Every structure is written in C-alpha cells, then in structure tokens.
Amino acid sequence: MRKKIAAANWKMNTTFQEAENLLRTITQNSPLLDANIQVVFAVPFPYLQMASSMVAETPHYNIAAQNCYHQKSGAYTGEVSAAMLHSIGVHYCIVGHSERRVPFGESNEQLAAKINLLFEYGIVPIFCCGEPLLIREAGTENSFVENQLKESLFHLPATQLAQLIIAYEPIWAIGTGKTATTDQAQAMHAFIRTVLGKKYGTAVAEETSLIYGGSVKASNANELFDAADVDGALVGGASLQAEEFKAIIAALK
Ligand code: PGA
C-alpha cells in the first residue's frame, strides 16, 4: 500500500527557537497514526540536526532538507551536498521546488543529478513538478509536467522510482491562496500515474506516493485527500501554524 504523506515546507522561516517550539507543539501528544502515514518536516539547513534529534524516537515523523547541490563535493561555496545530509542522518530532501527552479535557474538535468546523488546516499527525494499559470491557461499543463518527469526521473530504475515522493505543485497555487480544485489536482495526479505506468508499469505507478502542494490548509485538506490519486500534501504557509498542520495530518486518516 502506498504511503500517505503530510510534508511541511517551512521555507526560509523561523528562528532556531521558533523552529524548536513549532516542532515540539506539533509532535508532542500526537495521536496514534496509521502505519502507512508519514509526516515530514522540511526545515532550514541550520536546524536539521536539532529537528532530527527531536523526532528520533517517533517513527512517523521525519526530517527533510529543502534542497541539496547537484555536485558531489568541491569548490561550491555556500552549497550543501547529499553526502553532508546523509552524514547528519537526514532521510528526505525536497528537489526541484519552483522557488528554486525559477529564481535559481535549476534545470531538469540538474535535478536528475541531485536525485542520483540523494539515492546514492539513501535519501528519499521529494520531487516537485508543476506548471506556471501561462501554461495552465494555454491548456498544455499535461505535456509540461510529463516533460519534467521524463527529464528528471525516467533514467531511474523502477526500484528507485517507487521509493520517491512526487509533489505536484501548480506554481499559480503556491502561496497565493488559490488552491487547485480537487478535480484539477485529481486530474493531474491521475495523469502523472498514467505517465509513470506507461514507463514503469501499473504496479510501480500504484506504489508511488503523489502529493499535492499549493495553498493546502486545514479547511481544504479533507476534500483533497479524498481524491483517489492524492496521497497527501506538501504544505508551505499552513505548516507554520501548529494547529493547522496538525489538522492536515489528521485529515490523512
Ligand atoms: P503554500 O506552499 O502551501 O504556502 O502554497 C506550498 C509549497 O510551496 O510547497
């Protein structure tokens, strides 16, 4: 059975103390979660170790980095490698968020290189894909997303593909308060699963977790998670509010 996932993307928010408090508030006295539910906190780099040690005893909670570099090591001032993440016990890493693809010019090929490095170090990539507004308005979102998947993922063997998490995040819905409708999210998730199925077979496509991101909050999580191909969410703004994010976790059921 594929996993249901609530992933928090804290982006460049919180001080160290705020991060500690937020994580404690969300994880303390948490209700018993089903075995197939995973909660992931993508925290800023300086808090990874603190956060990892805070959730070390709780199997449902995991920590993610928000990015890593596409080269293994070397003279890349200011960058963080997959090997570094591995060496401090990080098990997940977001790759290809639109807030990196667009302003930092990250290409599909660079993302493929990051994914290879993450797998080499046993870290699960949370691969983000999704179209900008102009593409949605032109009605070509399916081919746009299919191309992102092909260029960054289709070199992987099926065993690795089934392990990664794919987050569909239409750029026009991120941080805008404009959530895709459940029908729009479901249609794209079903399309992604079909694309994966054609390349890797239906069994692998059915095993892969597809989560939705873009203005997810407690008030729309239930409806989104009821969609057949939506296996959870990547949550930005609402993940910074403990009660909101706890309600989103609860909506995974
Ligand atoms: P948002 O961000 O929930 O604030 O729209 C989602 C994301 O960027 O992952």
Protein architecture, described:
- This protein is α/β, with parallel strands linked by helices and 253 residues long.
- The protein is 44% helix and 16% strand.
- The relative contact order is 0.15.
- The mean pLDDT is 96.
- The site of 2-phosphoglycolic acid has 13 residues, from strand 8.
Key structural traits:
alpha/beta; 253 residues; binds 2-phosphoglycolic acid
Brief digest:
With 253 residues, the protein is of the alpha/beta class. The protein contains twelve helices and eight strands.
Break the fold down into its secondary structure elements and pairings:
Blueprint: E1 4-9, H1 16-27, E2 37-42, H2 48-55, E3 61-65, H3 82-87, E4 92-95, H4 98-101, H5 108-120, E5 124-129, H6 133-138, H7 141-153, H8 158-161, E6 165-168, H9 182-200, H10 202-207, E7 209-213, H11 218-226, E8 232-235, H12 242-252
Parallel strand pairs: 1-2, 1-8, 2-3, 3-4, 4-5, 5-6, 6-7, 7-8
Bound molecules: 2-phosphoglycolic acid (PGA).
2-phosphoglycolic acid is lined by residues 9, 169, 174-175, 213-216, 234-238.
Largest sheet: 8 strands, parallel, barrel
Describe the global form.
Answer: globular
The chain-level mean pLDDT equals 96
> What is the tally of beta strands?
8
What is the spatial order of strands in the main beta sheet? 1-2-3-4-5-6-7-8
